Amino acid sequence: MQLFKQLPTGNAEIFPLATTMASKVAIIFLASLWLAGCASTRPSVTQPTPVGAIHERDLRATCFPPAQWRTRPVAPDPQAKQQVWFSPTGDTAYGVVCISMPIPAGKELALQGFLSVMQQREGEVDLISKQHDRAAHALRFVAQMPDYEMRGKLVVQGFSGWVMFASTLRSRPVRCDELELAESAREATRPD
Q: Deepest in the core among 44, 58, 78, 151, taking most CB within 10 A?
């Protein structure tokens, strides 16, 4: 399972809500700058993950991958640092994406930019739900892509944003035990 694919070229209608050419250019420019600077040059290696907390320096976050979940190479992304851990079955994943923004942005704008980039990569993104979680200072969302469903938590701090997620393959029955582990890991993740 590859949660993140290489960006296709030639997607002309990235932001359907933009009504003028100037606003489209501005949004595209902000979204590209927003994600710039997060590229990780460190290759992912398949390895058993440790039990408990691990600090991912490149992600600037403390992550809590479930025991026996493994990382796999993820398509390199020049726009965001990311790490994804996969369950032993490969049907479920827990991941963290670190995003740098050129200006401090709110959660709504950050989510719009993130989903726009995912639409470029995946071809289709349907935002199923979103909800502000004031207690966690986060924006929670559920989005469906052609291959998987992402249950995300977006946090913004100054010039940085993090998307922590639990994802399941849409072509397979949801493994509730794995999803629970991924969601627990997502909730425990702490950006620096």
A: 151
| DSSP for 5-34, written as a single string | -PPPS----S-TT--SHHHHHHHHHHHHHH
Rounded CA separation 1/95 (Å): 13
- Asked whether 96 and 59 are in contact (CB, 8 A), the reply is yes
* Burial (CB count <10 Å: 0-12, 13-18, 19+), residue 87: buried
Encoded amino acid at 102, one letter: P
Q: Which residues contact 127 (CB under 8 A, 6 or more apart)?
A: 115, 141, 142, 143
Residue-level pLDDT at 78: 67
Prediction pTM value: 0.72
Maximum mean pLDDT: which of 12-16, 28-32, 151-155: 151-155
Res 76: pLDDT: 72
Instruction: List % helix, strand, coil for the chain (3-state, nearest 5).
Output: 25, 30, 45
Distance of CA 12 to the CA centre of its chain: 22
Q: Which of 71, 93, 99, 115 is nearest to 185 (CA)?
A: 93
Mean pLDDT (the chain) is 78
- Taking alpha carbons only, the member of 34, 43, 63 closest to residue 166 is 63
Q: Which of 47, 97, 91, 42 is nearest to 72 (CA)?
A: 47
Contact 66, 93 (CB under 8 A): no
